[in-house]
Specification:
alpha/beta; about 550 residues; three-stranded mixed β-sheet; about 10% strand; Rossmann fold; Helicase, Ruva Protein, domain 3; about 60% helix
Protein backbone atom coordinates (compact mmCIF):
# COMPACT_ATOMS: atom_id res chain seq x y z
CA UNK A 1 0.00 0.00 0.00
CA UNK A 2 1.24 3.50 -0.87
CA UNK A 3 2.76 5.58 1.92
CA UNK A 4 0.52 8.27 3.40
CA UNK A 5 1.77 11.52 4.86
CA UNK A 6 1.59 11.91 8.61
CA UNK A 7 -0.95 14.73 8.47
CA UNK A 8 -3.31 12.42 6.54
CA UNK A 9 -2.78 9.41 8.74
CA UNK A 10 -3.20 11.43 11.94
CA UNK A 11 -6.04 13.61 10.78
CA UNK A 12 -8.42 14.18 13.76
CA UNK A 13 -11.40 11.84 13.84
CA UNK A 14 -12.92 13.21 17.05
CA UNK A 15 -13.29 16.63 18.62
CA UNK A 16 -10.85 15.49 21.29
CA UNK A 17 -8.11 15.21 18.65
CA UNK A 18 -8.55 18.79 17.40
CA UNK A 19 -5.63 20.49 19.14
CA UNK A 20 -5.78 24.02 20.48
CA UNK A 21 -9.40 24.79 19.51
CA UNK A 22 -11.21 23.95 22.75
CA UNK A 23 -13.37 27.09 22.48
CA UNK A 24 -14.80 25.70 19.22
CA UNK A 25 -15.08 22.00 20.04
CA UNK A 26 -16.72 22.62 23.42
CA UNK A 27 -19.42 24.81 21.88
CA UNK A 28 -20.14 22.31 19.11
CA UNK A 29 -20.32 19.41 21.56
CA UNK A 30 -22.81 21.25 23.76
CA UNK A 31 -24.94 22.07 20.72
CA UNK A 32 -24.91 18.41 19.66
CA UNK A 33 -25.99 17.17 23.08
CA UNK A 34 -28.73 19.80 23.35
CA UNK A 35 -29.79 19.19 19.73
CA UNK A 36 -29.44 22.87 18.86
CA UNK A 37 -27.85 22.46 15.45
CA UNK A 38 -27.71 25.51 13.21
CA UNK A 39 -28.37 25.31 9.49
CA UNK A 40 -25.06 27.07 8.61
CA UNK A 41 -21.61 27.38 10.19
CA UNK A 42 -18.59 29.45 9.21
CA UNK A 43 -15.15 28.16 10.26
CA UNK A 44 -12.42 30.78 9.75
CA UNK A 45 -8.78 30.83 10.74
CA UNK A 46 -5.18 30.27 9.56
CA UNK A 47 -4.21 27.24 7.51
CA UNK A 48 -3.65 23.91 9.21
CA UNK A 49 -5.64 24.70 12.35
CA UNK A 50 -8.34 22.05 11.90
CA UNK A 51 -11.22 23.79 10.11
CA UNK A 52 -12.03 21.09 7.54
CA UNK A 53 -11.32 18.30 10.04
CA UNK A 54 -13.73 19.85 12.54
CA UNK A 55 -16.34 20.15 9.77
CA UNK A 56 -16.11 16.44 8.94
CA UNK A 57 -16.23 15.48 12.62
CA UNK A 58 -19.36 17.63 13.03
CA UNK A 59 -20.93 15.95 10.00
CA UNK A 60 -20.24 12.52 11.53
CA UNK A 61 -21.54 13.52 14.97
CA UNK A 62 -24.81 14.85 13.49
CA UNK A 63 -25.42 11.70 11.44
CA UNK A 64 -24.04 9.17 13.94
CA UNK A 65 -26.42 6.32 14.68
CA UNK A 66 -25.83 6.92 18.41
CA UNK A 67 -26.89 10.60 18.18
CA UNK A 68 -27.20 12.80 20.12
CA UNK A 69 -23.56 12.35 21.10
CA UNK A 70 -20.68 14.70 21.90
CA UNK A 71 -18.23 12.58 19.86
CA UNK A 72 -18.87 10.42 16.78
CA UNK A 73 -18.46 6.73 17.46
CA UNK A 74 -16.48 6.15 14.23
CA UNK A 75 -17.82 2.59 14.21
CA UNK A 76 -21.32 2.82 12.76
CA UNK A 77 -21.94 2.69 9.01
CA UNK A 78 -22.63 6.44 8.82
CA UNK A 79 -19.39 7.39 10.58
CA UNK A 80 -17.29 5.00 8.53
CA UNK A 81 -18.92 6.11 5.29
CA UNK A 82 -18.35 9.81 6.00
CA UNK A 83 -14.72 9.12 6.96
CA UNK A 84 -14.08 7.24 3.73
CA UNK A 85 -16.11 9.69 1.62
CA UNK A 86 -18.53 7.10 0.22
CA UNK A 87 -21.77 8.69 1.47
CA UNK A 88 -23.08 11.12 -1.18
CA UNK A 89 -25.19 13.07 1.31
CA UNK A 90 -22.04 14.56 2.86
CA UNK A 91 -20.40 16.57 0.10
CA UNK A 92 -17.02 18.30 0.40
CA UNK A 93 -16.97 21.08 -2.18
CA UNK A 94 -13.79 22.97 -3.13
CA UNK A 95 -14.73 26.55 -3.96
CA UNK A 96 -11.21 27.35 -5.16
CA UNK A 97 -11.58 25.12 -8.23
CA UNK A 98 -15.38 25.42 -8.56
CA UNK A 99 -16.01 29.12 -8.15
CA UNK A 100 -18.44 29.75 -11.00
CA UNK A 101 -22.15 30.21 -10.45
CA UNK A 102 -23.03 27.28 -12.74
CA UNK A 103 -21.09 24.84 -10.57
CA UNK A 104 -22.67 26.21 -7.40
CA UNK A 105 -26.15 25.90 -8.91
CA UNK A 106 -25.50 22.25 -9.79
CA UNK A 107 -24.80 21.62 -6.11
CA UNK A 108 -27.70 23.67 -4.80
CA UNK A 109 -30.20 22.05 -7.17
CA UNK A 110 -29.83 18.83 -5.17
CA UNK A 111 -30.42 20.52 -1.83
CA UNK A 112 -34.17 20.12 -2.00
CA UNK A 113 -33.90 16.31 -2.24
CA UNK A 114 -34.00 14.40 1.04
CA UNK A 115 -30.90 12.49 2.17
CA UNK A 116 -30.78 8.81 1.29
CA UNK A 117 -28.14 7.32 3.60
CA UNK A 118 -28.08 9.54 6.69
CA UNK A 119 -30.37 11.96 8.53
CA UNK A 120 -28.81 15.24 7.32
CA UNK A 121 -27.24 16.44 4.13
CA UNK A 122 -24.03 18.25 4.99
CA UNK A 123 -22.30 20.55 2.48
CA UNK A 124 -18.71 21.38 3.44
CA UNK A 125 -17.57 24.27 1.20
CA UNK A 126 -13.82 24.76 1.58
CA UNK A 127 -12.11 28.07 0.71
CA UNK A 128 -15.55 29.64 0.34
CA UNK A 129 -14.08 33.13 -0.13
CA UNK A 130 -13.03 32.06 -3.67
CA UNK A 131 -16.65 31.96 -4.91
CA UNK A 132 -17.73 34.57 -7.42
CA UNK A 133 -20.33 37.21 -6.58
CA UNK A 134 -22.96 35.34 -8.60
CA UNK A 135 -22.15 32.11 -6.79
CA UNK A 136 -22.46 33.89 -3.43
CA UNK A 137 -25.87 35.22 -4.48
CA UNK A 138 -27.01 31.72 -5.41
CA UNK A 139 -25.78 30.40 -2.06
CA UNK A 140 -27.44 33.28 -0.21
CA UNK A 141 -30.89 32.33 -1.49
CA UNK A 142 -30.49 28.81 -0.13
CA UNK A 143 -29.12 30.05 3.22
CA UNK A 144 -32.16 32.31 3.64
CA UNK A 145 -34.67 29.45 3.38
CA UNK A 146 -32.79 26.17 3.80
CA UNK A 147 -34.58 22.80 3.98
CA UNK A 148 -34.67 21.23 7.44
CA UNK A 149 -32.45 18.33 6.40
CA UNK A 150 -29.52 20.47 5.08
CA UNK A 151 -26.54 21.87 6.96
CA UNK A 152 -23.88 24.10 5.39
CA UNK A 153 -20.35 24.32 6.83
CA UNK A 154 -18.23 27.02 5.20
CA UNK A 155 -14.47 27.08 5.76
CA UNK A 156 -12.14 29.95 4.86
CA UNK A 157 -8.77 31.49 5.65
CA UNK A 158 -9.91 34.97 4.55
CA UNK A 159 -13.30 35.78 6.09
CA UNK A 160 -13.04 39.48 5.14
CA UNK A 161 -13.67 38.47 1.49
CA UNK A 162 -17.03 36.89 2.29
CA UNK A 163 -20.13 39.13 1.91
CA UNK A 164 -21.64 40.22 5.20
CA UNK A 165 -25.01 38.88 4.06
CA UNK A 166 -23.50 35.38 4.10
CA UNK A 167 -21.67 35.82 7.42
CA UNK A 168 -24.79 37.12 9.17
CA UNK A 169 -26.65 33.92 8.35
CA UNK A 170 -23.98 31.63 9.82
CA UNK A 171 -22.70 30.76 13.25
CA UNK A 172 -19.09 31.90 13.06
CA UNK A 173 -16.22 30.10 14.79
CA UNK A 174 -12.70 31.59 14.65
CA UNK A 175 -9.92 29.01 14.81
CA UNK A 176 -6.74 30.21 16.49
CA UNK A 177 -3.13 29.51 15.77
CA UNK A 178 -2.04 26.48 17.77
CA UNK A 179 0.56 27.11 20.46
CA UNK A 180 4.00 25.59 20.04
CA UNK A 181 3.59 23.51 23.20
CA UNK A 182 0.30 22.00 21.98
CA UNK A 183 1.94 21.09 18.67
CA UNK A 184 4.87 19.48 20.51
CA UNK A 185 2.52 17.41 22.66
CA UNK A 186 0.66 16.17 19.60
CA UNK A 187 3.90 15.28 17.79
CA UNK A 188 5.15 13.44 20.90
CA UNK A 189 2.04 11.26 20.77
CA UNK A 190 2.60 10.56 17.08
CA UNK A 191 6.29 9.64 17.36
CA UNK A 192 5.53 7.40 20.34
CA UNK A 193 2.76 5.59 18.47
CA UNK A 194 4.90 5.17 15.35
CA UNK A 195 7.99 4.22 17.43
CA UNK A 196 10.20 6.90 15.91
CA UNK A 197 13.26 8.03 17.88
CA UNK A 198 13.13 11.83 17.99
CA UNK A 199 14.89 14.48 20.05
CA UNK A 200 12.42 16.64 21.99
CA UNK A 201 14.35 19.80 21.11
CA UNK A 202 13.93 18.89 17.43
CA UNK A 203 10.17 18.71 17.96
CA UNK A 204 10.24 22.13 19.59
CA UNK A 205 12.20 23.53 16.66
CA UNK A 206 9.67 22.10 14.19
CA UNK A 207 6.73 23.38 16.22
CA UNK A 208 8.09 26.92 16.25
CA UNK A 209 8.81 26.81 12.51
CA UNK A 210 5.21 25.69 11.83
CA UNK A 211 3.90 29.09 13.04
CA UNK A 212 0.74 27.73 14.61
CA UNK A 213 -0.29 25.23 11.93
CA UNK A 214 -0.56 21.55 12.86
CA UNK A 215 -0.53 20.39 9.24
CA UNK A 216 2.67 22.35 8.56
CA UNK A 217 4.25 20.85 11.68
CA UNK A 218 3.41 17.29 10.66
CA UNK A 219 4.70 17.91 7.13
CA UNK A 220 8.01 19.19 8.54
CA UNK A 221 8.18 16.25 10.92
CA UNK A 222 7.58 13.87 8.02
CA UNK A 223 10.37 15.55 6.09
CA UNK A 224 12.75 15.45 9.07
CA UNK A 225 12.08 11.74 9.57
CA UNK A 226 12.93 11.08 5.93
CA UNK A 227 16.09 13.19 6.15
CA UNK A 228 17.40 11.66 9.37
CA UNK A 229 19.18 8.31 9.77
CA UNK A 230 18.17 6.54 12.98
CA UNK A 231 17.17 9.49 15.14
CA UNK A 232 15.67 12.89 14.37
CA UNK A 233 18.16 15.38 15.83
CA UNK A 234 18.15 19.15 16.26
CA UNK A 235 20.47 19.51 13.27
CA UNK A 236 18.00 17.55 11.13
CA UNK A 237 15.18 19.85 12.23
CA UNK A 238 17.30 22.94 11.50
CA UNK A 239 18.16 21.66 8.04
CA UNK A 240 14.55 20.89 7.18
CA UNK A 241 13.07 24.11 8.54
CA UNK A 242 15.84 26.36 7.24
CA UNK A 243 16.33 27.85 10.70
CA UNK A 244 19.60 28.78 12.33
CA UNK A 245 20.93 26.92 15.37
CA UNK A 246 20.90 28.65 18.72
CA UNK A 247 24.64 28.16 18.98
CA UNK A 248 25.10 30.23 15.84
CA UNK A 249 22.76 32.93 17.18
CA UNK A 250 24.67 32.98 20.47
CA UNK A 251 27.91 33.39 18.52
CA UNK A 252 26.46 36.23 16.45
CA UNK A 253 25.09 37.99 19.55
CA UNK A 254 28.50 37.60 21.22
CA UNK A 255 30.08 39.39 18.24
CA UNK A 256 27.64 42.28 18.73
CA UNK A 257 28.54 42.54 22.42
CA UNK A 258 32.28 42.42 21.73
CA UNK A 259 31.92 44.85 18.78
CA UNK A 260 33.77 42.30 16.64
CA UNK A 261 32.83 43.21 13.06
CA UNK A 262 35.16 40.62 11.53
CA UNK A 263 33.66 37.75 13.50
CA UNK A 264 30.11 38.89 12.69
CA UNK A 265 30.74 39.09 8.95
CA UNK A 266 32.59 35.76 8.91
CA UNK A 267 29.68 34.07 10.69
CA UNK A 268 27.25 35.57 8.19
CA UNK A 269 29.39 34.40 5.28
CA UNK A 270 29.44 30.87 6.68
CA UNK A 271 25.66 30.98 7.15
CA UNK A 272 24.96 32.04 3.58
CA UNK A 273 27.49 29.54 2.24
CA UNK A 274 25.40 26.73 3.72
CA UNK A 275 22.33 27.96 1.85
CA UNK A 276 20.42 29.66 4.67
CA UNK A 277 17.84 32.23 3.65
CA UNK A 278 18.80 35.79 4.70
CA UNK A 279 15.17 36.69 5.41
CA UNK A 280 14.70 33.62 7.59
CA UNK A 281 17.93 34.37 9.46
CA UNK A 282 16.76 37.94 10.12
CA UNK A 283 13.46 36.63 11.50
CA UNK A 284 15.29 34.13 13.74
CA UNK A 285 17.54 36.91 15.04
CA UNK A 286 14.58 39.16 15.89
CA UNK A 287 12.79 36.35 17.73
CA UNK A 288 16.05 35.49 19.50
CA UNK A 289 16.30 38.99 20.99
CA UNK A 290 12.58 39.00 21.68
CA UNK A 291 13.02 35.88 23.80
CA UNK A 292 16.04 37.44 25.48
CA UNK A 293 13.97 40.49 26.42
CA UNK A 294 11.22 38.28 27.86
CA UNK A 295 13.78 36.27 29.79
CA UNK A 296 15.27 39.42 31.34
CA UNK A 297 11.97 41.14 32.15
CA UNK A 298 9.74 38.12 32.93
CA UNK A 299 11.93 35.08 33.70
CA UNK A 300 8.96 33.08 35.01
CA UNK A 301 7.30 33.02 31.57
CA UNK A 302 9.56 30.34 30.15
CA UNK A 303 6.71 28.82 28.14
CA UNK A 304 6.36 32.12 26.22
CA UNK A 305 9.80 31.78 24.67
CA UNK A 306 9.46 30.95 20.99
CA UNK A 307 12.98 30.40 19.73
CA UNK A 308 15.60 29.86 22.40
CA UNK A 309 16.53 27.15 24.85
CA UNK A 310 17.63 28.36 28.27
CA UNK A 311 21.14 26.96 28.18
CA UNK A 312 24.09 28.41 30.09
CA UNK A 313 25.49 30.28 27.06
CA UNK A 314 22.21 32.08 26.45
CA UNK A 315 21.73 32.96 30.12
CA UNK A 316 25.22 34.41 30.50
CA UNK A 317 24.79 36.34 27.25
CA UNK A 318 21.44 37.73 28.37
CA UNK A 319 22.95 38.88 31.68
CA UNK A 320 25.70 40.80 29.85
CA UNK A 321 23.36 42.73 27.52
CA UNK A 322 21.38 45.60 29.07
CA UNK A 323 17.69 45.91 28.33
CA UNK A 324 18.14 49.28 26.62
CA UNK A 325 20.53 47.72 24.10
CA UNK A 326 18.04 44.94 23.32
CA UNK A 327 15.45 47.59 22.44
CA UNK A 328 17.91 49.20 20.04
CA UNK A 329 18.88 45.86 18.52
CA UNK A 330 15.28 44.85 17.85
CA UNK A 331 14.49 48.27 16.38
CA UNK A 332 17.44 48.13 13.97
CA UNK A 333 16.75 44.51 13.01
CA UNK A 334 13.08 45.23 12.34
CA UNK A 335 13.99 48.20 10.14
CA UNK A 336 16.44 46.05 8.18
CA UNK A 337 13.83 43.33 7.74
CA UNK A 338 11.43 45.86 6.20
CA UNK A 339 14.14 47.07 3.81
CA UNK A 340 15.05 43.50 2.79
CA UNK A 341 11.50 42.81 1.64
CA UNK A 342 11.68 45.42 -1.12
CA UNK A 343 15.11 44.73 -2.59
CA UNK A 344 16.69 42.25 -4.95
CA UNK A 345 19.89 42.25 -2.89
CA UNK A 346 18.92 41.36 0.69
CA UNK A 347 22.46 40.22 1.46
CA UNK A 348 23.77 43.81 1.22
CA UNK A 349 21.24 45.09 3.74
CA UNK A 350 22.04 42.15 6.00
CA UNK A 351 25.78 42.83 5.93
CA UNK A 352 25.25 46.53 6.61
CA UNK A 353 23.01 45.62 9.55
CA UNK A 354 25.70 43.32 10.99
CA UNK A 355 28.26 46.13 10.86
CA UNK A 356 25.83 48.59 12.49
CA UNK A 357 24.96 46.13 15.24
CA UNK A 358 28.64 45.57 16.01
CA UNK A 359 29.14 49.34 16.29
CA UNK A 360 25.94 50.09 18.20
CA UNK A 361 26.25 52.44 21.15
CA UNK A 362 23.82 52.39 24.07
CA UNK A 363 21.78 55.58 24.16
CA UNK A 364 20.18 54.99 27.53
CA UNK A 365 21.56 55.91 30.95
CA UNK A 366 19.99 52.80 32.40
CA UNK A 367 23.37 51.07 32.56
CA UNK A 368 25.23 53.96 34.17
CA UNK A 369 27.14 52.90 37.28
CA UNK A 370 25.49 53.66 40.58
CA UNK A 371 28.43 55.78 41.78
CA UNK A 372 28.14 57.95 38.65
CA UNK A 373 24.43 58.46 39.34
CA UNK A 374 25.23 59.47 42.90
CA UNK A 375 27.79 61.99 41.63
CA UNK A 376 25.16 63.49 39.34
CA UNK A 377 22.68 63.77 42.22
CA UNK A 378 25.31 65.46 44.42
CA UNK A 379 26.19 67.89 41.64
CA UNK A 380 22.51 68.76 41.11
CA UNK A 381 22.03 69.46 44.83
CA UNK A 382 25.16 71.64 44.84
CA UNK A 383 23.91 73.68 41.89
CA UNK A 384 20.51 74.13 43.53
CA UNK A 385 22.17 75.45 46.69
CA UNK A 386 24.32 77.86 44.70
CA UNK A 387 21.26 79.10 42.81
CA UNK A 388 19.40 79.68 46.07
CA UNK A 389 22.40 81.56 47.50
CA UNK A 390 22.55 83.77 44.42
CA UNK A 391 18.88 84.66 44.83
CA UNK A 392 19.44 85.65 48.47
CA UNK A 393 22.51 87.71 47.65
CA UNK A 394 20.73 89.43 44.80
CA UNK A 395 17.94 90.64 47.10
CA UNK A 396 20.35 91.75 49.87
CA UNK A 397 22.90 93.38 47.60
CA UNK A 398 21.04 96.67 47.12
CA UNK A 399 21.10 97.92 50.76
CA UNK A 400 24.73 96.80 51.26
CA UNK A 401 26.06 98.78 48.31
CA UNK A 402 25.89 102.32 49.64
CA UNK A 403 28.21 104.02 47.23
CA UNK A 404 28.53 102.10 44.00
CA UNK A 405 31.08 103.30 41.47
CA UNK A 406 29.88 104.81 38.18
CA UNK A 407 31.31 101.81 36.32
CA UNK A 408 29.17 99.39 38.33
CA UNK A 409 26.08 101.52 37.80
CA UNK A 410 26.66 101.53 34.10
CA UNK A 411 27.03 97.76 34.05
CA UNK A 412 23.87 97.29 36.09
CA UNK A 413 21.86 99.66 33.95
CA UNK A 414 22.88 97.83 30.81
CA UNK A 415 21.25 94.70 32.18
CA UNK A 416 17.98 96.45 32.99
CA UNK A 417 14.81 96.21 30.98
CA UNK A 418 14.67 97.12 27.32
CA UNK A 419 14.34 100.88 26.82
CA UNK A 420 12.03 101.75 23.91
CA UNK A 421 12.35 105.00 21.95
CA UNK A 422 9.54 106.82 23.75
CA UNK A 423 10.01 110.11 21.89
CA UNK A 424 9.76 108.50 18.47
CA UNK A 425 6.80 106.39 19.63
CA UNK A 426 4.95 109.56 20.74
CA UNK A 427 5.62 111.15 17.35
CA UNK A 428 4.14 108.11 15.61
CA UNK A 429 1.08 108.24 17.89
CA UNK A 430 0.52 111.89 17.00
CA UNK A 431 0.43 111.08 13.27
CA UNK A 432 -1.15 107.60 13.57
CA UNK A 433 -4.34 106.86 11.63
CA UNK A 434 -6.66 103.92 11.49
CA UNK A 435 -6.22 103.54 7.72
CA UNK A 436 -2.44 103.24 8.04
CA UNK A 437 -2.81 100.54 10.68
CA UNK A 438 -5.38 98.60 8.62
CA UNK A 439 -3.09 98.70 5.59
CA UNK A 440 -0.28 97.28 7.67
CA UNK A 441 -2.42 94.52 9.19
CA UNK A 442 -3.84 93.54 5.79
CA UNK A 443 -0.32 92.74 4.52
CA UNK A 444 1.05 91.36 7.80
CA UNK A 445 0.37 87.67 7.10
CA UNK A 446 1.90 87.78 3.62
CA UNK A 447 4.90 89.59 5.04
CA UNK A 448 5.42 86.85 7.66
CA UNK A 449 5.30 84.18 4.96
CA UNK A 450 8.11 85.88 3.02
CA UNK A 451 10.51 85.94 6.00
CA UNK A 452 12.95 83.26 7.02
CA UNK A 453 11.67 80.87 9.70
CA UNK A 454 14.14 82.23 12.25
CA UNK A 455 12.98 85.79 11.53
CA UNK A 456 9.26 84.98 11.47
CA UNK A 457 9.62 83.16 14.82
CA UNK A 458 10.40 86.50 16.49
CA UNK A 459 6.98 87.77 15.41
CA UNK A 460 4.92 84.83 16.66
CA UNK A 461 3.58 86.82 19.61
CA UNK A 462 3.97 90.35 18.25
CA UNK A 463 1.41 92.64 16.61
CA UNK A 464 1.33 96.20 15.22
CA UNK A 465 -0.68 98.52 17.51
CA UNK A 466 -0.29 101.92 15.79
CA UNK A 467 0.98 103.15 12.44
CA UNK A 468 1.57 106.39 10.59
CA UNK A 469 2.50 106.97 6.97
CA UNK A 470 6.17 106.05 7.46
CA UNK A 471 6.50 104.28 10.85
CA UNK A 472 4.66 101.78 13.02
CA UNK A 473 4.79 100.54 16.61
CA UNK A 474 5.21 96.78 17.13
CA UNK A 475 4.12 95.38 20.50
CA UNK A 476 5.97 92.26 21.76
CA UNK A 477 4.50 90.02 24.44
CA UNK A 478 7.91 89.23 25.96
CA UNK A 479 10.56 91.82 26.70
CA UNK A 480 13.42 89.43 25.91
CA UNK A 481 12.06 88.75 22.40
CA UNK A 482 11.60 92.49 21.85
CA UNK A 483 15.19 93.20 22.84
CA UNK A 484 16.47 90.36 20.66
CA UNK A 485 14.47 91.50 17.62
CA UNK A 486 15.36 95.17 17.86
CA UNK A 487 19.04 94.29 18.21
CA UNK A 488 19.15 92.35 14.92
CA UNK A 489 19.74 94.55 11.86
CA UNK A 490 19.07 91.67 9.48
CA UNK A 491 15.62 91.22 11.03
CA UNK A 492 14.76 94.94 10.78
CA UNK A 493 15.97 95.11 7.17
CA UNK A 494 14.02 91.99 6.20
CA UNK A 495 10.76 93.30 7.70
CA UNK A 496 11.24 96.73 6.11
CA UNK A 497 12.00 95.26 2.67
CA UNK A 498 9.06 92.86 2.80
CA UNK A 499 6.61 95.63 3.76
CA UNK A 500 8.05 97.91 1.05
CA UNK A 501 7.36 95.28 -1.61
CA UNK A 502 3.79 94.79 -0.38
CA UNK A 503 2.77 98.41 0.42
CA UNK A 504 5.23 100.54 -1.50
CA UNK A 505 6.19 102.39 1.72
CA UNK A 506 9.38 102.48 3.75
CA UNK A 507 8.46 101.92 7.40
CA UNK A 508 10.44 102.62 10.53
CA UNK A 509 9.87 99.81 13.04
CA UNK A 510 9.64 100.79 16.71
CA UNK A 511 9.46 97.88 19.14
CA UNK A 512 7.98 98.03 22.61
CA UNK A 513 7.26 95.32 25.24
CA UNK A 514 3.62 94.80 26.14
CA UNK A 515 3.98 95.86 29.80
CA UNK A 516 5.72 99.12 28.83
CA UNK A 517 3.30 99.88 26.00
CA UNK A 518 0.43 100.48 28.43
CA UNK A 519 2.44 103.11 30.35
CA UNK A 520 3.65 104.85 27.20
CA UNK A 521 0.15 105.02 25.74
CA UNK A 522 -1.39 106.40 28.95
CA UNK A 523 1.38 109.00 29.20
CA UNK A 524 0.73 110.09 25.64
CA UNK A 525 -3.01 110.40 26.24
CA UNK A 526 -2.43 112.46 29.38
CA UNK A 527 -0.12 114.84 27.56
CA UNK A 528 -2.59 115.21 24.72
CA UNK A 529 -5.37 116.07 27.15
CA UNK A 530 -3.16 118.69 28.86
CA UNK A 531 -2.42 120.42 25.54
CA UNK A 532 -6.05 120.43 24.54
CA UNK A 533 -6.84 122.94 27.38
CA UNK A 534 -10.15 123.71 28.93
CA UNK A 535 -12.20 122.79 25.86
CA UNK A 536 -10.94 119.25 26.05
CA UNK A 537 -11.72 119.11 29.75
CA UNK A 538 -15.24 120.46 29.18
CA UNK A 539 -15.85 117.84 26.53
CA UNK A 540 -14.61 115.17 28.87
CA UNK A 541 -16.91 116.42 31.59
CA UNK A 542 -19.86 116.87 29.25
CA UNK A 543 -19.28 113.59 27.37
CA UNK A 544 -17.73 111.01 29.73
CA UNK A 545 -18.45 108.11 27.40
CA UNK A 546 -16.03 109.59 24.85
CA UNK A 547 -13.29 109.88 27.45
CA UNK A 548 -13.89 106.31 28.54
CA UNK A 549 -13.71 105.09 24.95
CA UNK A 550 -10.37 106.86 24.52
CA UNK A 551 -9.02 105.21 27.64
CA UNK A 552 -10.08 101.77 26.46
CA UNK A 553 -9.09 101.93 22.81
CA UNK A 554 -6.72 104.92 22.59
CA UNK A 555 -7.40 108.38 21.25
CA UNK A 556 -6.01 107.53 17.83
CA UNK A 557 -8.71 104.89 17.33
CA UNK A 558 -11.70 107.00 18.45
CA UNK A 559 -13.40 109.15 15.80
CA UNK A 560 -16.06 111.64 17.00
CA UNK A 561 -18.84 112.45 14.57
CA UNK A 562 -21.20 115.31 15.53
Amino acid sequence: MAYQALYRVWRPQQFFDVVGQEHVTKTLQNALLQQKISHAYLFSGPRGTGKTSAAKILAKAINCEQAPVAEPCNECAACRGITSGTIPDVLEFDAASNSRVEEMRDVLDKVKFAPTSVNYKVYIIDEVHMLSISAFNALLKTLEEPPKHVIFILATTEPHKIPLTIISRCQRFDFRRITAQSIVNRMKLIVEETEIDCDERALQMIARAAEGGMRDALSLLDQAISYSQDRVTVEDALTVTGSVSQGFLNKMAKAFVDKDVVSGLESLEDLLFHGKDPARFMEDLIVFYRDMLLYKTAPNLEESLERVMLDSDFQSLADSIPTAQIYQLIELLNKTQQEMRWTNHPRIFLEVAIVKLCQLEIKSTETAPSDHIEQLKTRIEQLENELQQLKVNGVAAAPQEQAPTPQKQATRSSKKAFQPAVGKINEVLKQATKNDLNLLKANWGEMLASLLKSQAALLNEAEPVAASANAFILKFKHEMICQMAMGRNDFLDAVGSALHKLTGKRYLLLGVPEDQWMDIREGFLSSQQGEAGEDSEMKTEEEPHIAEAKKLFGAEFVEIID
